[in-house]
Amino acid sequence: MKTLIAATVFVLLFGAQASRAQESPYMVTYDHYLEEPGNLEVEYFSTFGTQRGGNPFVADWMEFEYGVKAWWTTEFYIDGQSTFSDSTLLTGFRWENRFRLLQHEHFINPVFYMEYEQINDADKILKEVEGHDVESDNAEPNALARRDLNHELELKLLLSKTFNGWNFAVNPLFTKNLLPSEPWEFGYAIGASRPLSLNASANACNFCRENFIAGLDLYGGLGDTESFGLHDTSHYLAPVAAWNLPSGWTVRLSPGFGLNDNSHQVLLRWGLSYEFAGFGQHISSLWGKRQ
Amino acid sequence: MRRNTIWIRTSVSLLFAVCGFLVPASAQNVGNAPATDHFDYAELTKAPAKARARKNPQEGNTEAALVGRKLFMQHCAECHGATADGGKKAPSLLVDQVQQATPGALFWLLTNGVVRRGMPVWSKLPEPQRWAIVIYIKTLGPPASRDAGAK
Q: Tens of pLDDT along A70-102?
C-alpha cells in the first residue's frame, strides 16, 4: 500500500505535466465543459461564512476531478469545516459524475450530473443550496450536528451555452435523502461569465487579460415536494473571478451575499487548483498497460 | 430502521454499479487509435457545408500564427504532440486530410470536438483563439512538402 501511494505521489510530482486549463470561475454553477480525458485536477476550496445566532465558520473541501472520457468526468470530494469557538471536523465525502449527453455543440448543451453524498449535518461548504436550507440550520453546535449522517442522491441537469465569449449556464437541482420518508428537494444555480479578453497574446504571460475570467453565480433553494416554492428558502448572489496561470494553476475568488433574511449575510469563497495532464496514462504505465 | 438501511445500501450499490458498468465499457477505446487511422479524420468530412465555407477572419494576420502556436502548445500538444505529428492519444495533424481541409472545417472540429473518440469540445476557447489555432495548424503543412523544403 505504501508503495502504491509513493508511486502515485511520484507520478503526480514528476511524471505528469501541468496542463494549462481554461477553467471556469464558477463556485456553484456548472457549465457543460468536462475535464480533458486522462487529466486530473486537484482543487482546494474554502468558504468563510458569517452566522447570525452562531459563530462564523470556515468550511474547506478538496476535489479530485478526473476526465475518464471526453463525455464523462468523475470527481471525489472530501469536506470539512471549522467553526470559531467550537471545533474542527471532517464532515463527509461526495462522489460526483457528469455525463455529456450530446456529441456536438448545440444551441443548449445538456450534461447529466449525478452525485452521491455521505455527509453529516455539520457540513457547511454550501456547494449547493437546496430545499428549505436556511442560515439557522448551520447554527447548531458541531457536537450535535455531526451525529446526523445523511446519505443523499443529487441530480442536476447542467444546461450551458457559450456565445461570443460569454458563457451562460442554468442548473436545476433535485436532491433526495435516501431515507424513503424524506421528500425530494429542489434548487437552482445560474451563472454567466466571460474572459476579460477574447484575444490571446503570442507570449505566455501571467497577467494577460485573457487569463482572467469574471462572472456571476446566483443560486438558492426552491422547496421540496411537500412544500414547493420560495418561502423559507435562502438565495445568494456572488461575483466570481478566476485567474488561469500558464503554469497550470488556477486561482478563484468569490464574495457571495445573501439575498434574504434566511441567507448567510456573507459567504467569502476562494480556491486553488492544479491540473495534471496525462495523469491516467502515467498511472496505467505503472502497471505496464498498453499505451 | 433496518428497512432504511437496506434502502440506502441498495441505492448506493445501484449508483456504483451504473458507474462501474460504464468504466470497462468505455475503456475499450481509450486513446489507442493509431496516428494514421483514417477513421480519425472522418469527422472532418461531417462538418456542415456552411461551416466548411467559413473564412478565417484572421487570415493574413502574421501575429495570429504565433498566438496559435502558443495556444496549440498549451491545449493541443499534450495529445497531438509538440510537432503535431500525432501521439498516443490523438492523430497527426500533418496529414493531407487535415492540411487540405478548409479552415472552416478545422474550426468546426475544434469547436465540436470528437467526443466519442476522446477529443474534448473546445468552444470554451473564444473564437479568435480557435481561429488562431487553425492558422497555426495550416502553417505546419504535410510531411512531404516540409521534407522537400528541407532538401
A: 999 999 999 999 999 999 999 999 999 999 999
**Cα distance between residue B77 and residue B83, in whole Å:** 7
Give the A window 171-200 contacts with B, CB below 8 Å: 178-180, 195, 198-200
> Does residue B150 sit in helix, strand or coil?
helix
| Rg, chain A, Cα only | 19
Low-confidence ranges of chain A (pLDDT < 70): 1-21, 288-291
Q: Using the beta-carbon criterion (under 8 Å), do B120 and A37 form an inter-chain contact?
A: yes
- Over 50: is that where the pLDDT of B29 sits? no
In chain B, what residues touch A178 (CB-CB under 8 Å)? Answer: 7-8, 11-12
d(CA A284, CA A98): 23
- β-strand A212-224 against A166-177: which pairing, if any? unpaired
> Which of B16, B11, B14, B20 lies closest to A150, judged by CA?
B11
Domains recognised in chain A with CATH numbers: 2-286 (2.40.160.40)
Give residue A70's Cα distance to chain centre: 19
Distance CA A208, CA A185 (A): 42
Three-class DSSP category at A237 = strand
| B15-32 burial: b if 16+ Cβ within 10 Å, else e | beeebeebeeebeeebbe
List, for residues B62-91, the tens digit of each pLDDT value. 899 999 999 999 999 989 999 999 988 899
- Using 50, 70 and 90 to split pLDDT, how confident is the model at B8? low
Q: What's the grid cell of residue A61? A: 473541501
Q: Does A101 touch chain B (CB under 8 A)?
A: no
| CA angle (A163 as vertex; A157, A164 as ends), nearest 5 | 155
